[in-house]
């Protein structure tokens, strides 16, 4: 199987802190891959490195075999790598419609278009509708984003990333902080992501991880601790010791 | 079902591009003042120019979130460009506008790379610095600019070869108003385009804007350049209609005044600059009739009061009023979220 | 040559004393206080007015040039500035420009728009020749005083309890609050102290920098350069930036008078291009 995303010996130091410690990692094409690890293990840092928000101290990042280590964040997106954020990064004053429309316009090259009124192209509209339906946002399309319930905001967070039509999607704790009642809706949309998108999921909710992922990597203190199938990782006593043990207690 | 939504999506996106009744009225009234207030044309001309200048600031401040302490640099450059051109025999006003716009745009383009490099603080320093450098150049190159005495002997030809400037300022006002209106239409079109949407997204959250694939820096360079060109045109209008340019066009108080103008009218919906210009000029008239000397003190006081009273809230009120009149949704900007990479 | 270096150092040290308060308020509260120069002007006018109208000797005015702006700063911080810490930079900029304009107009109204001249005591006038280098007495005096202040500041920051709390608050106000540090008190104290230092700088600098109602506007760019080039996380950053700026400005105006005014801007641009995060700031 082809490799969608790969890192080789990736290192990130913040001063004295080794937040990413020589991580060599592969995400297969079409994978449902979970990355787990205790708080502060360096998961978000890893995503920030992959997407170019921060620069690695050492190592390489390959997207579909091509080196993207020095590429600017927006160019990585244009090459098919999108992400969500652990803490919502939305546009508070814009509506979900505008937010999704923005991402769709950008993808189709419309962002340089300064004379056409937004929304005057048929295929863009269809795309927006498709995404709004997929992420169950049709009823709140014209609300101000800052007024949306938290669960809807989390959905929008994924919807924007998805609107970039990525081939690799990185989800940073999509269900974090979502109240139980709104959780189901969110998980359903994550489960229904199309299979041709390779997904790397960071999550603390073990039920979600086990039901969603076919492979799991465990990150501890910035380094890859182990990797395997759901079966292997969930029965690995060392993983229980460093991670599951803690999270069960939480 | 899905076609219903599609219709809804389209109308709700396209609606922003439509002109509301209030807007049409606004411009009709502006046009009417040409005939109804003949004895006020000189001050109305100033209002149109300041309004255009503030509009140019709104493009970068309201739509891209760039705080500038030196927007007068572009205004002044435009004024000198147009003035010097006219002085040397190129008396056609439109040619002057074009050259002024180009000169200011080039300056904006070049300096944008410095402005966009750093934090808010760096932006303040660079914008202020650019204006000061220009002021110093204009001061020292007196063979070209007239230095501290100002640029004398600017004489303009008729607008489009037909309308001579008159002492009542009627041609001047009509000319400035038309230019402002045309540039306003362009700006208005831009802010509802996908490009304009991307600017707003950068202002609200540059981190996420990058994450949806927006080349943030390039967009900002573009809008900074455009805004500079607008400011240059405003400066050129002043030079042409008053037929005089002094160092004052580059002074710090110009940059501060235009911020005040924009803030009075409200940031981020384009009409703020125009409405602000009206209020500002009226205030200036009233206050200087009452105590001519310490106008600066009152400007300062107004700024302090506006901020303490909650600029956001005041703006919201103006905008709601406007929304009532204009009959369409005007979106309000949020204060910039202060997230650092660490908090992602 | 050495004379110019010497003058430049004196000038730079003055700039540091003037601007360090701003660096601290920026670093501590992330507050862009463009009105910082107004406090410096206040100090300058305290000295000028006391000397010229009441005949108080120069040295005796200096403590007041510190205290009056400090109190002014304290009052304004507690009443107005405090409310704006959480606001956007635009609001802070507008507010502080407003204050500057009011200060400029108020001083103009009260004392007129002319330069305030101060008569230095005779023992500070003139130059002496040390190993062939012309050394201005007043500039030596400034270097000694400012140098002592720099050392004292550094000691306060590194050795005292207050200093360690201040550093903790600069590093991360939320954590500092969690540790039971009264951040608001620290804000007020540093703001007042910074304003006082600016006032002292204004008084000491009246002779060299000039003093008139437009002082806060004229020196705004210098302060901004010091804090952006020097950064706000240390004291040494702004200090070195001030020295650099002082020397460059003096040397530029001496050697190439016609373009001397542009030297500092060139410096600013070079630094920005090479080190956008500031000359002395660690890259994160
Ligand atoms: N920008 C940064 N500067 C300094 N330290 C950071 C930064 N971002 C993350 N860290 C540190 O790196 C470590 C890993 O953080 P993070 O990647 O957020 O962990 P996780 O997402 O696994 O909880 C933490 O100790 C965090 O404090
Ligand atoms: Mg995380």
Automatic annotation (TrEMBL), chain A:
Keyword terms of this UniProt record: ATP-binding, Nucleotide-binding, Transport
InterPro entries: AAA+_ATPase (IPR003593), ABC_AA/LPS_Transport (IPR051120), ABC_transporter-like_ATP-bd (IPR003439), BCA_ABC_TP_C (IPR032823), P-loop_NTPase (IPR027417)
SUPFAM superfamilies: P-loop containing nucleoside triphosphate hydrolases (SSF52540)
ABC transporter domain: residues covered: 5-246
Pfam family, one: ABC_tran
GO molecular function: ATP binding
Protein name: ABC transporter ATP-binding protein
From TrEMBL, chain B:
Cellular localization per UniProt: Cell membrane
Major subcellular site: membrane
Domain of life (superkingdom): Bacteria
Topology of the protein relative to the lipid bilayer: Multi-pass membrane protein
Keywords associated with the record: Cell membrane, Membrane, Transmembrane, Transmembrane helix
Transmembrane parts of this sequence: 19-37, 49-74, 94-116, 172-191, 221-239, 260-282, 294-310
PANTHER family: ABC TRANSPORTER ATP-BINDING PROTEIN, HIGH-AFFINITY BRANCHED-CHAIN AMINO ACID TRANSPORT SYSTEM PERMEASE
Protein name (record): Branched-chain amino acid ABC transporter permease
Automatic annotation (TrEMBL), chain C:
Cited PANTHER family: ABC TRANSPORTER ATP-BINDING PROTEIN, BRANCHED-CHAIN AMINO ACID TRANSPORT SYSTEM PERMEASE PROTEIN LIVH
The UniProt record lists the keyword DNA repair: no
Presence of the UniProt keyword Cell membrane in the record: yes
InterPro entries with a match to the protein in the record: ABC_transp_permease, BCAA_transport_permease
The species this protein was found in: Microvirga splendida
Residue ranges of the TM segments: 58-81, 93-111, 131-157, 178-200, 220-247, 254-274
Subcellular location: Cell membrane
Membrane topology listed for this record: Multi-pass membrane protein
Family affiliation: Belongs to the binding-protein-dependent transport system permease family. LivHM subfamily.
Keyword set, alphabetical order: Amino-acid transport, Cell membrane, Membrane, Transmembrane, Transmembrane helix, Transport
One Pfam entry name: BPD_transp_2
Protein's recorded name: Branched-chain amino acid ABC transporter permease
């Amino acid at each position: 199987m082809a490799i969608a995303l790969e890192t080789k010996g990736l290192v990130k130091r913040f001063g004295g802190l080794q937040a990413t410690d020589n991580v060599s990692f592969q995400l297969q094409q079409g994978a449902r891959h979970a990355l787990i690890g205790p708080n502060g293990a360096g998961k978000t840092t890893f995503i920030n490195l992959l997407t170019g928000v921060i620069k690695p101290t050492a190592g390489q990042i390959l997207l579909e075999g091509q080196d993207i280590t020095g590429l600017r964040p927006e160019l990585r997106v244009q090459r098919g790598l999108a992400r969500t954020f652990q803490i919502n990064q939305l546009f508070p004053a814009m509506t979900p419609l505008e937010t999704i429309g923005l991402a769709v316009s950008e993808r189709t090259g419309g962002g340089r278009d300064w004379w056409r009124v937004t929304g005057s192209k048929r295929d863009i509209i269809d795309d927006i509708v498709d995404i709004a339906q997929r992420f169950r946002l049709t009823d709140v399309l014209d609300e101000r984003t800052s007024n949306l319930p938290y669960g809807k905001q989390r959905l929008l967070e994924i919807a924007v990333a998805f609107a970039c039509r990525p081939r690799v999607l990185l989800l940073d704790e999509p269900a974090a902080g979502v109240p139980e009642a709104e959780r189901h809706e969110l998980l359903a949309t994550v489960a229904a992501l199309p299979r041709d998108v390779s997904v790397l999921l960071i999550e603390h909710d073990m039920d979600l991880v086990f039901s969603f992922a076919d492979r799991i990597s465990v990150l501890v203190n910035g380094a890859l601790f182990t990797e395997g199938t759901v079966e292997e990782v969930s029965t690995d006593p060392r993983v229980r010791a460093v991670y599951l043990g803690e999270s069960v207690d939480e | 079902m899905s076609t219903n939504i599609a219709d809804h999506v389209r109308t709700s996106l396209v609606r922003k591009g439509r002109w509301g009744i209030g807007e049409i009225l606004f411009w009709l009234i502006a046009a009417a003042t040409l005939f109804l207030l003949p004895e006020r044309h000189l001050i109305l001309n100033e209002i149109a120019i300041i309004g255009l200048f503030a509009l140019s600031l709104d493009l970068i401040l309201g739509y891209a979130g760039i705080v500038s302490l030196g927007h007068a640099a572009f205004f002044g450059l435009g004024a000198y460009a147009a003035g010097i051109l006219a002085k040397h025999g190129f008396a056609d006003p439109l040619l002057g506008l074009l050259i002024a716009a180009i000169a200011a745009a080039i300056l904006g383009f070049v300096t944008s790379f410095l402005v966009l490099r750093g934090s808010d603080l760096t932006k303040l320093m660079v914008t202020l610095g650019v204006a000061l450098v220009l002021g110093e150049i204009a001061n020292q190159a007196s063979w070209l600019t007239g230095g501290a005495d100002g640029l004398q002997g600017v004489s303009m030809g008729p607008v489009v070869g037909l309308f001579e400037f008159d002492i009542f300022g009627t041609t001047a006002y009509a000319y400035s108003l038309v230019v402002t209106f045309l540039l306003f239409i362009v700006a208005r079109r831009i802010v509802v385009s996908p490009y304009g949407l991307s600017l707003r997204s950068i202002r609200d959250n540059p981190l996420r804007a990058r994450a949806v694939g927006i080349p943030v820096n390039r967009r900002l360079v573009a809008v900074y350049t455009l805004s500079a060109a607008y400011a240059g045109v405003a400066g050129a209008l002043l030079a042409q209609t008053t037929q005089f340019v002094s160092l004052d066009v580059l002074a710090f108080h110009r940059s501060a005044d235009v911020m005040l103008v924009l803030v009075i009218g409200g940031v981020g919906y384009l009409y703020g600059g125009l409405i602000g210009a009206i209020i500002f000029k009226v205030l200036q008239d009233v206050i200087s009739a009452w105590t001519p000397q310490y106008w600066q003190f009152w400007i300062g006081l107004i700024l302090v009061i506006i901020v303490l009273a909650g600029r956001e809230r005041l703006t919201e009120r103006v905008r709601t009023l406007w929304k009532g009149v204009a009959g369409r949704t005007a979106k309000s900007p949020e204060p910039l979220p202060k997230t650092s990479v660490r908090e992602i | 040559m050495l004379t110019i270096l010497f003058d430049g150092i004196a000038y730079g040290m003055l700039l540091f004393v003037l601007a360090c308060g701003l660096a601290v308020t920026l670093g501590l509260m992330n507050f862009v206080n463009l009105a910082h120069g107004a406090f410096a002007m206040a100090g300058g006018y305290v000295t000028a007015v006391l000397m010229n109208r009441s005949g108080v000797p120069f040295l005796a005015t200096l403590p007041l040039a510190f205290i009056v702006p400090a109190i002014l700063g304290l009052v304004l911080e507690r009443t107005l500035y405090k409310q704006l810490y959480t606001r956007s930079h635009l609001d802070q900029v507008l507010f502080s420009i407003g204050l500057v304009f009011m200060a400029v107009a108020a001083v103009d109204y009260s004392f007129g728009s002319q330069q305030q001249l101060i008569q230095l005591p005779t023992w500070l006038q003139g130059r002496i020749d040390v190993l062939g280098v012309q050394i201005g007495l007043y500039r030596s005096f400034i270097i000694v005083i400012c140098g002592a202040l720099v050392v004292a500041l550094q000691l306060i920051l590194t050795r005292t309890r207050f200093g360690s709390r201040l550093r903790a608050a600069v590093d991360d106000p939320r954590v500092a609050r969690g540790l039971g540090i009264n951040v608001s008190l620290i804000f007020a104290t540093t703001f007042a102290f910074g304003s006082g230092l600016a006032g002292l700088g204004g008084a000491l600098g009246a002779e060299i920098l000039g003093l008139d109602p437009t002082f806060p506007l004229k020196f705004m760019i210098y302060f901004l350069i010091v804090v952006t080039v020097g950064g706000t996380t240390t004291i040494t950053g702004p200090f070195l930036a001030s020295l650099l700026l002082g020397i460059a400005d003096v040397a530029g105006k001496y050697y190439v008078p016609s373009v001397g005014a542009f030297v500092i801007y060139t410096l600013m641009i070079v630094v920005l291009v090479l080190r956008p995060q500031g000359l002395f700031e660690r890259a994160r």
